[in-house]
Amino acid sequence: MDDIHMLSSSNNLHLSSITKRMQFKIEQEANYIINQNREEDEDKLHNAPIKVFDEKKAIYQYIRGDYRFNLSGMQSREPSDLMISYCSSDKKLCLIIYNKLKESKMYRISFDEANDHESNPIAMADSVGRSSIILVCFSNKYRQLNASRLEAEFAKKRKRKIIPIRVERYYEPTGGWLLSIIDDRECVDFTQGNFIYAYNRLIEHIDIAIDDD
């Protein structure tokens, strides 16, 4: 273990990134999940929605506790938190998807444009923790990248909703860790040449995921 700590401080960036991911997996991941779950439970407790009573309704709703909501007093839906998980080889298409989602102003989106997650697993874990839905942009390169595996598996352990997005034409995982992440989920295919159609399908999947909360 001391060797891992020493290597994580290496001037060799590639070696340092590998050892930081190992260190996170072995020493930090379990506690990180526990702490993030605790923080989320506390947030839910403190930010519980306030029930708005409609005084025009029958008095029994107050006596029996049969509460009814005044829909006109409900706020509009808050922007949902998304994270795009991708590998740098697929950045061009993933960046287009990110910018299109950003234009809608319906989502707060975590997009690691500088690829910091590959060398900083703590930053990755924080991004997953802040997001309720993870868009997994998968390809053969994504499958081969250990950083992608750590990110996707951490999202699954955090019980985040996962929407698979194909960004390499005809690529279909046939086994291993990526298939276990995608499982039997329907993927959104951005490789067929019709971006608007694929984007609309993605929005449909996101809306379904939000409504399932």
Give an overview in words.
The protein is of the alpha/beta class and 213 residues long. It has 2 domains: 1-75, no CATH class; 77-211, Rossmann fold. The chain is built from 9 helices and 5 strands. A 5-stranded parallel sheet has the order 2-1-3-4-5, with helices on both faces. Helix 4 (91-104) links the parallel strand 1 (80-85) and strand 2 (107-111). Helix 2 packs parallel to helix 5 (121-130), helix 2 runs parallel beside helix 7 and helix 5 packs parallel to helix 7 (146-157). The longest helix has 34 residues, at 13-46. The radius of gyration is 21 Å and the shape is globular. The two termini are 40 Å apart. The model is unreliable at 1-5, 58-64 and 66-76 (pLDDT under 50). Residues 83-201 form the TIR domain. This is TIR domain-containing protein. Pfam families: TIR_2. It comes from Rotaria sordida.
Keywords:
213 residues, alpha/beta, Rossmann fold, 2 domains, 5-stranded parallel sheet, 5 strands, 51% helix, globular, disordered N terminus, TIR domain-containing protein, TIR_dom
